[in-house]
Every structure is written in structure tokens, then in C-alpha cells.
Amino acid sequence: MNEKIIDREELAERILDIIIAESKFDRSRITSDATLESLDVQSIDIVMILMAIEEKFGIYIPIDGAIAEAKNLNSFIQSVADHISRAHD
Questions:
Q1: Which domains does the chain carry?
Q2: Rounded CA gap, 26 and 89, in Å?
């Protein structure tokens, strides 16, 4: 199902909701410097997260470039949001 693209903050929140649902960590563990590694998100979790995002937004997101190089949770979310925004322009 294609989701209507909303403002950047809401988009980031939706992406975070998917990350939490797929990786099953507690939202209270999120800090400004949290990394996927510090949250115990494994590479298979990242694949599942991206598949869920792709399904929700009706796009393909390759694991390369800024997404693969994301150093923390925020940069990962922003990279995914950038990809979604470009796909829906």
C-alpha cells in the first residue's frame, strides 16, 4: 500500500515506528546518539526493517550509499526518509 507522503518530521516518526516494530526494542532506549548497534539491531533486522518500509511506502530501498553508511539511528532514518521523498517526487 502506498502511503501518502507527509511532512519530514512525521515521515521520520513513521520510519522509527517501523524500526521499533521490526526490531522489537523499547522506544525508551532511543537517544540522540543511539546507533543500530547500541540498540542490538542485527543486519537481518535491517533487511526486515527495509522490507517493511518498502511495503508501507510502495518503493524499493537498496542497502547502499547513505543507508549502508549510516553511523547512528538518526542518520539511518534521515537516509531512508530522503530515499522515500525522492521516490515520491
A1: 8-87 (1.10.1200.10)
A2: 33
